[in-house]
Amino acid sequence: MTISERFRELSRDVRQLAATEPPVVAGVERLQRLLQQVVQLLAEEAERVGDIPQYKLEQELTPVLLKAHNRLDQARLILEQAEETAAAQRIWELEQAIYRLLNSL
Fold first, then answer.
1. Do 97 and 12 meet the contact criterion of CB atoms below 8 Å apart?
2. Is the dihedral of CA 3, 63, 91, 43 positive or negative?
3. pLDDT recorded at residue 98
4. Please, which of 42, 51, 55, 83 could form a disulfide with 11 given CB 3.0 to 4.6 Å?
5. Distance between CA atoms of 105 and 102, rounded to whole angstroms?
């Protein structure tokens, strides 16, 4: 699977996660806002990622992936504090996908 395909898959996975009903936790508004920010960050690049030359992928995608990871990490911490382990685990899996993608760049 190419970097572009993996990036688009990650974008779809985050969009699906954000579309699900969030658990009722303290800070649910912040949780939703963080997830929407990640959706927006990734969606902006998902459209054009296939057009980015291979030698520029790292330069173009690294800042976006790091911002997305940071916001997902904040969302995961909200869920962990509320003891929503299943939802926190799903976000952790997305964070790991970002790590793998960064390592491939």
1. no
2. negative
3. 96
4. 42
5. 5
Query: What's the CA gap between 58 and 66, in Å, rounded?
Result: 11
Beta strands in 1-105 (DSSP E): none
Q: Return d(Cα 9, Cα 94) in angstroms, integer.
A: 11
Query: How many of the other CB atoms lie within 10 Å of CB of 23?
Result: 15
- Report the phi/psi class of residue 27: left, alpha or beta, with left for phi > 0 and alpha for psi in -120 to 50: left
pLDDT value at residue 53: 85
pLDDT tens by residue, 28-56: 888 889 999 999 999 988 888 888 888 88
Q: Are 14 and 38 in contact (CB under 8 A)?
A: yes
The residue count of the chain comes to 105
Q: Each residue of 55-86: pLDDT tens digit?
A: 888 898 999 999 999 999 999 999 999 898 99
Side chain identity at residue 84, one-letter code: E
